[in-house]
Amino acid sequence: MKVKILLGLIVIAALAVLLPQMLHAKTVAKLHSKLPDLVVSTMEVKSIGAVKNGKVTILYTIKNQGKTISPATLTRISVGDQVKGVTISHPTPDLQPGGSYTGKVEYTASEGKKYFIQATADYKNNAFETNELNNGNSMYFSFGRILHQ
Which is the CATH superfamily of the domain at 38-143? Predict the structure, then answer.
């Protein structure tokens, strides 16, 4: 009889510990699926005016692929070659689920160089998101003829 009571107490103690954790995990999973999710969905580089002046516009699109509205955030854009570059922050307005915002950055490139662009949505992690690891996108572009490096 004492063994049955002892086993019963062990089961009750285990349930007292595990049940709240299981309920918490389900609640977190349910809340997590209802968060916004910001991604850099597209990036594009366009020449401005005459090709020889080296001015380009970098267009980037931030999309909320989550289930709820995203608050206004900051997007970080870094562009440069192997020697020098620039990093700037651009505001991104709040976005409805499925909504997007296209921003632009102007940059002056030199002919014959390869450039790297990286865009990161919500780079300060101000928005709680479904996935915090999918906020970035990157690409290379060149202006004019590429010189072998």
Answer: Immunoglobulins (2.60.40.10)
